[in-house]
Amino acid sequence: MRRLTADWILHPDGNLVPGHTLVLESNGTIAGLERHAADDSEHIEGILCPGFVNAHGHLELSHLNGKITQGNKLTGFISEFITARRENNAGISDAALVACKYMWESGTQGSGDICNTYDSFGAKKNSPVRFYNFVEVFSPVPGQIAKVMEDAGALTDKIRSDRGVCGIVPHAPYSVPPALFRAVKEIAESNESLYCIHNQETQGENEMFKTGNGPLIRLFRSMGIGMEWFEPTGKTSLVSVSDYFPSKGKIMLVHNTYTGIDDLQYLVTSGLFERCWFCLCPKANLFIEGRLPNIPMLMHEGCRIVIGTDSLASNDSISVLEELKTIHHQYRKIPVAQLLQWATANGADFFGWSDLGRFKPGCRPGVIQITQAGAGHLMPGSAVRRMV
Ligand SMILES: [Zn+2]
What we know:
With 388 residues, the protein is an alpha/beta fold. Helices cover 35% and strands 22% of the residues. The chain has 13 helices and 17 strands. 48% of the residues are buried. Zinc ion binds at residues 56, 58, 114, 198, 254, 310.
């Protein structure tokens, strides 16, 4: 048995508590959390918390680290991204392997990962990180929908034959025509898979659906994509496409940078809210759009929040702690325990990983130390050290 005390330990009830002892079996299984600081224990500076759940990443884009200019808004990002992905097709699996190792070392225990290809699976196969794979589809040209779904089906078959867990999901409201949304809905409902979608990452997405104009539509047309299938609805993008969401199961909305109170109220009245989870990727939002979602509003409305890093194409790191530090820097009033809860238990709950995210006896959620940290603060120099 290993006995650890720390300045603060993240209790399964969501609070950071002092003066407790975490008792571990030799294989890292939690034997108990005792309500006193045992004399024979090892004392750890800072916070002890379970391994993180990174709810949204794109491991297969790790080779694009540093290839895309910051601050060009989503339209600038997309146009540079398409070129960067086309021109950089070497070293993809090696970069994914390095990134995957870094995920583990920086405290990530489980992750939701977006896949357009099989490129990240060499890295994932031998990784201790647990993955839920979202096979993502898009097709701004409707004639290609049958082929897109066929390719996605082939990729899910391949992932499942490796014993990987996956589901097919749509990319974003602006890149998925109604027929493709319906095809994804049907397959998600029959497989009871988890569902996620990039949501309201840029103001141009709402503008496109409200008015039929704006920078996203202009970008598609400049790329020779006519978007003839698209009809403005006069409503925000989220309200416009939510009819296509599966009729049961969990839904993760990723980014939410331009999600407003009206969107949340719509989700409540349409009965979707209780199935929705809101993923924050603050560093990617700052990288691309230079702004964060209205996190206090999401909290006030009772949104269940999870944390993602997005990819190294839109972030300089895929450390969950760096995301929490970014939120803490901007919103000091959010308790550190709350941030940690989003990054651990909430993510585990979304993915149905009941053995991760909390120090519960009999579980093996990983144990990480966060240095220079306490119930009231994270520091710029706070870092993760993996204990188990
Ligand atoms: Zn993403």
